[in-house]
């Protein structure tokens, strides 16, 4: 572990020790007014509801209040201050992809309301959803395949959209919300209408959001080309509570975008530009069964269908080339948790289930098959079981997952394989305020359909004296990637630290993730092929903390990571910069005002594969203010004002600064944001 990691560890230990010194006798006052994001109830890490700060895994949460305050346009706006988490790609809103602990693409599982978002096609993005529709984002850092199937080598991002209970105020059965916003940097205008109702056992919610924006401007005043877009996104939900713990639901989510953008949309390429029309839709039917007093049954299911379709007509060069990309997923997720005791002194929470999905993809070019995105499909079926055994202050968790997959493509060799992924963790509630834990988990990722079967032209090499191209070569012999993660952590929680009924939560985690058969896209002089080329090791330290007293709130997120190619030596690409993010805010409870600021500081990252150049460190300051009165003539109204990158700093994120030559553009400059929301 490098010296910056040790310095971060010393700093973090000092901060957390200061909180411990403030802890006195157990509090006898009522539950605190202040709660942190680490107090949020999450299910992503364990599939059963738990408080984020008590889970023996590094879980970060962005709650609804923070989403509204940030006025996000894209993934980076949601995730940039989380330890170990980045958003890949140029600042084009719909093409950013998450990276967790230096791993991105298919190595991060994304779920929206329990529905897998499996779309993957070169540089075209993965997630298509307006952030305004979200009520909570949960991020589990580290391998999570035991519970969430193929792909979670880096982690899991679970996004939950708004429901009737999130929108209806106490005593309301019907509500409507009108919203609008403007952001200065790219001249974005946003408007939306949302409604929710409850009638007996039936409830529902619907929302429609539209955005129109011009190109972003970077920190030195340049327009970032082809970052303008027009989008529309919406959802509709119905839920019915049958009784005796039975609830059924159906939801539809859609997204559409029209833009002019590079075909390699998350890169700096400007030689292959297309008019793009994108559409995404998701349909899900879900149910839960948790009858009162029946500890053996806490069941749920989700059956779903998603489709992403992209039409691209090339305009640079203006040759009329027309590409289509279509990706469909059919899936089923079924689970149950049984709680019981065998010997009388221990408690079991036994979670078991099955998840299965089928992906179908197809690409065309001028009506003919497009071999760079071949017609192919895969079916993955997983069985999982996990038992969390609690004996006094100690909880031991044992889990095992079995995955079987089949993959095929026209004119290519079919393949099938299976794999077992174990997990074990031990957490000890040493005192009411301290819970150390250790864990070992494995994750498994089947090669993607594109990695296996992609053929055709990657890029042109020259046109004179005759056309020469670099071509994709399929590799149906790719082996799945296997990650083995060792982790140790400490969860801390305090009450009455600086004032009565305040709350302080903190987590420190140290990890080492070893990955075998790591798949890389190897670009040669005339060919490009996905290959199992190396063993990789990523290790690091992460700290997050939250304090809330009611009037005052603060958060801290910090991480230092290191990546090594164990086969060839040298550093891995896309290992995030060391960073620290601090947010401090104050609520004027009587008037309804909240004001605050956030500082993000990163270190220079020079540990990058060659040929490359260091990504400079940077510091950013953001300010925010919210006015949301709880009484008077403006009750139900909310005004959010933010100023991001106050000093208009010119900087680049490492995740899109990894080529042999730096881009001429920087990331988004100063941005004034205003949003108004009225609930009737």
Q: What can you tell me about this protein's structure?
A:
This protein is mainly β. The protein has a single domain (3-679), classed as Maltoporin, Chain A, CATH 2.40.170. It has six helices and 34 strands. The strands form four sheets. The chain has a 22-stranded antiparallel beta barrel. The longest helix is centred in the N-terminal third of the chain and has 20 residues, at 3-22. Mean pLDDT is 89; it is low at 1-32.
User: Spans with pLDDT under 50 lasting ≥5 residues?
Assistant: 1-32
User: With helices defined by DSSP (H or I, 4 residues minimum), what is the helix count?
Assistant: 6
The CATH architecture can be given as: Beta Barrel
Q: What's the name of the CATH homologous superfamily?
A: TonB-dependent receptor, beta-barrel domain
Helix content: under 10%
Form type: globular
Major sheet attributes: 22 strands, antiparallel, barrel
**Structural class by secondary-structure content:** mainly beta
In short:
Helix content is 7%, strand content 54%.
């Amino acid at each position: 572990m490098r010296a910056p990691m040790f310095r971060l560890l010393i700093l973090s230990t000092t901060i957390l020790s200061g909180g411990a010194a403030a802890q006195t006798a157990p509090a006898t006052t009522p539950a605190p007014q202040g709660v942190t994001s680490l107090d949020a109830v999450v299910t992503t890490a364990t599939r059963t509801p738990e408080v984020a700060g008590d889970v023996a895994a590094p879980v970060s949460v962005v709650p609804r209040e923070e989403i509204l305050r940030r006025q996000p346009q894209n993934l980076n706006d949601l995730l940039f201050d989380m330890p170990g988490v980045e958003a890949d790609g140029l600042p084009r809103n719909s093409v950013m992809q998450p990276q967790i602990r230096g791993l991105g693409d298919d190595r991060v599982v994304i779920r929206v309301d329990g529905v897998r978002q499996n779309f993957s096609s070169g540089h075209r993005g993965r997630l298509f959803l307006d952030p305004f529709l979200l009520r909570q984002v949960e991020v589990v850092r580290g391998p999570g395949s035991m519970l969430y199937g193929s792909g979670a080598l880096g982690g899991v991002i679970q996004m939950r959209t708004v429901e009737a209970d999130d929108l209806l105020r106490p005593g309301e059965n019907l509500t409507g919300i009108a919203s609008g916003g403007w952001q200065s940097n790219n001249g974005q205008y946003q408007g939306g209408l949302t409604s929710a109702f409850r009638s007996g056992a039936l409830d529902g919610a619907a929302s429609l959001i539209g955005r129109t924006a011009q190109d972003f401007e970077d920190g030195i005043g340049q327009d970032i080309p082809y970052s303008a877009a027009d989008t529309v996104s919406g959802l509709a939900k119905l839920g019915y509570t049958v009784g005796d713990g039975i609830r059924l639901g159906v939801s539809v989510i859609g997204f559409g975008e029209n833009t002019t953008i590079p075909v390699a949309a998350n890169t700096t390429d400007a030689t292959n530009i297309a008019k793009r029309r994108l559409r995404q839709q998701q349909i899900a039917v879900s149910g839960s069964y948790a009858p009162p007093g029946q500890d053996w049954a806490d069941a749920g299911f989700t059956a779903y269908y998603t489709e992403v379709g992209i039409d691209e007509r090339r305009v640079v060069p203006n040759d009329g080339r027309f590409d289509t990309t279509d990706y469909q997923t059919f899936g089923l997720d079924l689970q149950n948790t049984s709680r019981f005791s065998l010997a009388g002194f221990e408690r079991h929470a036994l979670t078991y289930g099955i998840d299965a999905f089928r992906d179908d993809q197809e690409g065309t070019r001028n009506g003919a098959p497009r071999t760079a995105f071949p017609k192919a499909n895969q079916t993955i079926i997983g069985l999982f079981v996990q038992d969390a055994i609690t004996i006094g202050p100690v909880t031991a968790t044992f889990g095992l997952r079995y995955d079987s997959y089949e993959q095929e493509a026209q004119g290519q060799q079919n393949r099938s394989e299976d794999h077992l992924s174990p997990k074990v963790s031990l957490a000890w509630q040493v005192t009411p305020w301290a819970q150390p834990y250790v864990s070992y988990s494995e994750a498994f990722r089947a090669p993607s359909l594109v990695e296996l079967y992609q053929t055709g032209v990657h890029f042109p090499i020259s046109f004179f004296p005759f056309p020469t191209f670099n071509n994709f070569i399929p590799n149906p012999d790719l082996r799945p990637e296997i990650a083995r993660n060792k982790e140790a952590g400490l969860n801390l929680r305090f009450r009455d630290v600086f004032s009565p009924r305040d709350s302080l939560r903190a987590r420190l985690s140290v990890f080492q993730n070893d990955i075998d058969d790591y798949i890389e896209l190897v670009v040669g002089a005339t060919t490009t092929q996905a290959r199992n080329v190396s063993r990789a090791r990523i290790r690091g330290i992460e700290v997050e903390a939250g304090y809330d007293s009611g009037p005052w709130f603060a958060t801290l997120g910090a991480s230092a990571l290191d990546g090594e190619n164990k086969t060839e030596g040298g550093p891995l690409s896309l290992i995030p910069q060391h960073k620290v993010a601090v947010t401090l805010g104050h609520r004027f409870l009587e008037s309804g005002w909240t004001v605050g600021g956030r500082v993000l500081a990163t270190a220079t990252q020079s540990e990058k594969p060659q040929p490359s150049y260091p990504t400079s460190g940077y510091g950013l300051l953001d300010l925010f203010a919210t006015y949301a009165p709880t009484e008077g003539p403006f009750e139900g109204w909310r005004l959010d004002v933010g100023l991001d990158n106050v000093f208009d700093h010119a900087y680049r994120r490492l995740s899109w600064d990894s080529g042999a030559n730096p881009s001429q553009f920087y990331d988004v400059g100063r941005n004034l944001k205003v949003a108004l929301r009225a609930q009737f």
